[in-house]
Amino acid sequence: MNLFTSQFSEIEIVYKNKMLHRDMKKITCSNDAYEVFAEVLANRIDHKEFFYILLLSRANKVLGFHKVSEGGLSGTVADPKIIFQTALKANSCSIILGHNHPSGNIAPSEADIKLTRRLKNAGEFLELPVLFHIVFSSEKYYSFADEGAF
Predict the structure, then answer these.
(1) 15-37 pLDDT, tens digit each
(2) What does pTM read for this prediction?
(3) Cα distance between residue 85 and residue 119, in whole Å
């Protein structure tokens, strides 16, 4: 046994792409992102609150998605470190944020607005832009970018 490796934890970073680039969905607008989130959450959208990210290639193709957090009926916590750790691990070129409001009210809360600003600023610093933040229900969505709040 090597003494050096027994005293320290190995950090492993893994991202495995399961799709060909040509088969990945391209995001061209907020509605495309909403459709992906709706498919990923399927029948859980109105159950409790989830925060997900979509990881995109340079061509805005969806490399994959990641569940950042799962909460209760009235909220969930999204840790910026986890969001950008995942995006960097996947070699994504940009990200899209999305979380549902089980109540059906898609108006962003003050906490949603503050988090969006923080994540947008962090993305600019890392040169890993946040393209959209979408708040959605099973019937409709709110896009910060589309509403000029980005």
Answers:
(1) 777 888 889 999 999 999 999 99
(2) 0.89
(3) 12
Q: Where are the domains of the chain?
A: 31-143
The pair of structure tokens assigned to 46 is 């109105």
From CA 48, how far away is CA 9, in angstroms rounded?
35
Per-residue pLDDT tens over the stretch 98-127:
999 999 999 999 999 999 999 999 999 999
With tokens 């946040």, the residue in question is 130
Neighbours of 120 (CB within 10 A): 18
CATH superfamily of 31-143: Cytidine Deaminase, domain 2 (3.40.140.10)
d(CA 135, CA 150): 13
Q: Report which secondary-structure segment, H or E, holds 85.
A: helix 80-89
The distance of Cα 47 from the centroid of its chain, to the nearest Å, equals: 19
Q: CA-to-CA distance for 91 and 50, rounded, in angstroms?
A: 23
